[in-house]
Amino acid sequence: MGWGGIGDNWNTGDNWDPNGVPGNTDTANITGNTLATAAVLNDAQTVNDVFVGSAGAGFLYITTGANLSTLDSNENDGLRVGNGTGTGTVTMDGGTVGLTGGFQIGRDGASTGTFNISGGILTAGQPIWIGRGGTGTVNQSNGSVSTSNSGDSVRIGSLAGSHGTYNISGGSLNAGRYLNLGRTDGTTTAALLMSGSSTVNLGMSSEGGARIRSGGFLEMDGSGSLLTMSGHFELEGGTFSALIDNAAVADPNTWKTIEALDVEFLSGSKLNLGFSTGTSPADGTWRLLEWSRNVQGTPVLELADGVSSGWTFNLDTDNKFLDVTYLVPEPSSLILILSGILLLAAQRMTRIHSF
User: Fold this and answer.
1) How many domains would you assign to the chain?
2) Range of the domain at 209
3) Phi and psi of 244, rounded to 5°?
4) Tens digit of pLDDT for each residue in 185-202?
5) In whole angstroms, what separates CA 242 from the centre of its chain?
6) Beta-carbon contacts of residue 47 (< 8 Å; ≥ 6 apart)
7) Does residue 18 have a cis peptide bond before it, meaning omega lies within 30 degrees of 0?
8) pLDDT confidence of 336, banded at 50, 70, 90?
C-alpha cells in the first residue's frame, strides 16, 4: 500500500492508496512525501513490511506512543530505509519498533537511507545493515538499537561499492554477535564513530565481537564511550582510532579499555591516534585494549598516515594489552628541528648560487 500524503497521520485511511490503513499482510510503502509532510506514527500498528523511500523520497516520523511491529522474518525485508533508487529518512524520538526481520538503511546500489534516533527502542530479529548496497547513515544521540541475530548481526558497508556510517553520541547499540565494518576486498567505506556517552555491546546472545576490515574505521572519541564484547577484536586491515579527551588527560584511568577474549591484527591494520577537539596535547599513556586468551597469527600493526610523531604504541603479546603513549616534543627538540630546516634551506640556496 502506498502513501497518499493527504495528511500526515499513519492511522488515517485516506492517507493510503488504496484507501485504508495497512494491515498484517501489507507492505507500507512511504514514498513521494517531504520532510514537512512526513508520515507520523504515534500509535500501535502491525504490518508485514515498511519501505521508506522507494524510487523517490520518503519520510517517516516515529514518536511517543508508537508501537510498530513488522511480521516478515526475511533478513532482506522488515524495515527498509532507502530502497531501489529512492532516498529514505526515518526519524525516531520515542515509542518502540519491533522487527521480526531485518533493518536495512541504503539497501540498493542507487539508494540512500538515513535513520535519526534520539529516543525510543528499536529491535530487530535479523541483521541490521547500514549501507547494504547503497549509502546508509545512522545518527544516534539517545535511545536503544538492538538485533538478536546470532551471526554477523550489524553490518556496516556490506556489499561491494556500498557506504555506511554509524554516528553514536548517546544511547546504545546492541548486537547479538558480530559487528562487521568494511570488506576484505576494500570495496566499501564503513565507519562506526563513537563519542559522548555512547555504548556499543557486541556478542549479547553468543560469543562475538568486532571485525574491522579493509575500508573499515572504528573511532572512540573521548572517555565517555564504552565498547564491550564477549569474544573477539579482529583488526583485519581496517583502522582503529582513539581520540583522547580532557578527562583522560587528567586521569588516564577514565579511558574505557576494550576487553576481549582473542585479538587479531592482519596486514594493513592501522592505529589512528590524536586528541579530541578542545583538548590540548599532553604527555600520557592510555590502555586501549586488553585480551584474556590469544593473539591469532602474527600481529601486524602500524600508525596511520598523518599521526603526530609524538605518538607511539606498545602491543604486548605476552602481557596481553595494547597501550598508546604521547610525549609532547621538548622545546629543545623543536629548536633542533627548526635549525635543521634552516640549515638545509641555506645549503640549498648556496648550491643554487654556485651555478
Assistant:
1) 1
2) 2-353
3) -80, 135
4) 999 999 999 999 999 999
5) 14
6) 22, 23, 24, 26, 27, 28, 68, 69, 70, 71
7) yes
8) low
